[in-house]
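Running this now, will post back.
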Amino acid sequence: MTDWKPLKTELEIWRGEGLQLPFWWRDDDAIAPSRQLDQLLELVGENGLPVHLAVIPRRATQELAERLADTPLAVPVVHGFLHQNHAPEGEKKCEFGANRAQKAVQDDISNGAVKMQKLFGPNIAPVFVPPWNRFAPIHLPILADAGFLAISTFTPRQRPEACAGLAQINTHIDPIDWHGTRSAHSADMLIAQTVELLINRRKGSQDNSEPLGFLTHHLVHDAAIWDFSVGFLETMLAGPVSLWNAHTLKGSIT
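Update: finished.
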């Protein structure tokens, strides 16, 4: 049985000190309706926390748009273009690396925005989620010029803006052991990791104005990942948190 006490204790310290934690949820690789998406949206309905669905534009279907049309707590954001690796051999996977020409990057971002607007219209939030959480800094102004107001990757941000006019709003806790079992990491490890992040924020060594992000990938969840996610969200939402929704970013992609 998972011991949530260390996390609950830290959250109680926050409450006792009158602190509040901004919190959000991002789920990557949405393409089409599925049994796993239904399970995700059922969890959203139970806990009331908006889920920011990072949708792959080139592969997204009209059926997905229809499935989400009456689900206001499912917030579509843009997940690259094709989720295709363009990195040179031997380098970490990346769709928008420094090796790509700016014109190619501009075309992908523009074409992705057009597809997303066609599918989701004003329901899209102006957040760009690069596949594999990697995006070359040299291309960041292209996102800002396209009307995106934020980029989201992984790990605590180093500064509030990735570039002028483009906020950095990352995710921080990923329950999946991608390089091992591809099931859930040890719950004790994930809880300890979260507590450390909260202590760093509480003591001022990390930026607590950045919403703390939980990252999931519904299409590859097994029972252990679902179980951890349910318990984690329940524990966090019982704490002194404010729920962040990307629709608070006023703007639209072009």
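DSSP finds seven helices and nine strands in the chain. More later if anyone needs it.
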